[in-house]
Amino acid sequence: MTQTRTVSRNKLFGIPLPAGHTGVDLIISALRIIIVALIIIGAGNTLLEGRFTFEQWLALLFAGLAQGSIYALIALGYTLVYGILRMINFAHGDVFMAGAFTTVFLANSFRQSGFLDSQPLLAILILMGFAALVSMTVAVLLERIAYRPLRNAPRLVPLITAIGASFFIQYTFRGLFGSGFKAYPTVAFLRGTFSVGSINVPIAQLFVFVSAIVLMICLYWLVERTRIGKAMRSVSEDKEVATLMGVNIDLIIVFTFAIGGALAGAAGVINGLFRPQGVNFFMGFFPGIKAFTAAVLGGIGNIPGAMLGGMFLGVIEAIGPNLVLNGLGIPSANQLKDVIAFTMLVLVLIFRPQGILGERLSAEKA
Amino acid sequence: MNGMQESTPLLVLDDVHASYGNIHALKGVSLRVEEGEIVTLIGSNGAGKSTTLRTISGLMRARAGKILFRGEDLQARAAHELVALGVALVPEGRRVFARLSVTENLEMGAWHRGNNQGIASDIDYAFTLFPRLGERRNQLAGTMSGGEQQMLATARALMSRPSLLLMDEPSMGLAPVLVETIFETIEQINSEGTTILLVEQNAQMALGVASRGYVLQSGNIVLDDDAASLRENPVVQKAYLGMD
Predict the structure, then answer these.
(1) What's the predicted TM-score (pTM) here?
(2) Does residue B93 lie within any of the structural domains?
(3) Is residue B19 part of a domain?
(4) Which of A32, A223, B88, B144 lies at a 20 to 30 A Cα distance from A165?
(5) Which of A209-213, A336-340, B14-18, B29-33 has the lowest mean pLDDT?
(6) Is the same domain home to B21 and B67?
(7) For the structural domain made of A52-351, what CATH number should be given?
(8) A252 close contact with B: CB closer than 8 A
(9) How many domains, chain B?
């Protein structure tokens, strides 16, 4: 049987498009060009006008890296759970809140007893450990109560449940600790700056960055070098075959939620000490959404991707408004940093849905 | 047949029924595998061969019937406990862990053995059985060819030191010369003391290595004989050996 090859040309406003292209492709290409042009014009203007000195840019970069470290720690929780269960745990931001909010009381009692000033590093370690424990407990309960019964349900069901669980956790903590903001105590040694030549880095930023890097190295080692990490990777690839190898899937899933929760809890304390605004029951919402953005940016399910995505988002948020929006003559650009963050999310979803380090999802995984 | 019938068979399926939703896939399968045998289960696509192996290995629950391994009811166990009892499955389509290295795949095969000393020497043994795997020990499994992945899936199952090896279509999608190699390996594994239940579409090869065979048709065992007789059986010749 002979097949007739038809060359069907798509048209946009009656104009034929190059073969194999659709109108959507054309619009996306146009969008791409416009965005690149805006970035170049904005950045060019800012740099030519010399609005900021080199030291000021560096300061923005360090602030961005510090904020990005916190995003990255939370993003790891999203990506770990997605890697194992292919679900987005939208209550993860509230797991972060649970640790941070609960630990603020312990932090203040450490402050009153003088322990925080006499042994700051030890005190901070204990606070991080405590918060990790609280968040871990919340994450494990969440999995057991809200997600496990729905493991074989259609994919939308656990997603909706996650949003419900998010509200449940928020208002449980509001009921427990009230709706007001509670501030973490200031730690004397975090208030200084660290200077190399003319470059000054606030110690608080350095502390956030270094703690996050240490935690990420621990996680990477756990996943890549240990027996349970190998089991996690095999469960993430093929649950049935992992079962055949004798791996108890439920145990690995609980372990994954626990690790993600612990990282979020530690991030909660780091965040509390780093940012003076204080904590309340709703504090998990925005960092949660941002960290989700970071995880998608890096490639959801990919551990180095979440780390990179978090740092990247933090830096873009800090530098982007000043570099691009300022140059385009947009007033009070820094208040638009959330716009930058979520524009990034939309752009990634349009141009590189698999994220920076992600592989293209096969139908089986998507 | 070989005087072993009086002792407990290694594996017994007694009137096993299984279904996917409303589809009744196994309609009362009964079979028996004695210690040391290679038994093959042949049949066309959709006859229920894979379902039988999935049900034995606990990935599917039987709706009715008994599955006894050394007289113990496997259905009372969780799927992840079976490997420790000595049941291992080489799944259909190989299903190696693509993003784990060859060595890590083999280590996963021995996962239930914990940090046992014997694992390293078993990996060395796997590399002598399949030299190609040794050459590629640090390569990601997903980057290997189909034949190499089949070797890896087989070696991974052997790493659990099974007494019963269930193999699902090991020749599927392989070049003829590789099929020969895989069947030689099957005979070698068996000669070293592992009992094998082999599911195959390639009935010619399967009946060549097996001592006995069962023919499965639409979820029912329709024939049960020793391999040589099955090869002479006109029904088998016509339907599964491509002879007229």
Answers:
(1) 0.88
(2) no
(3) yes
(4) A223
(5) A336-340
(6) yes
(7) 1.10.3470
(8) no
(9) 2
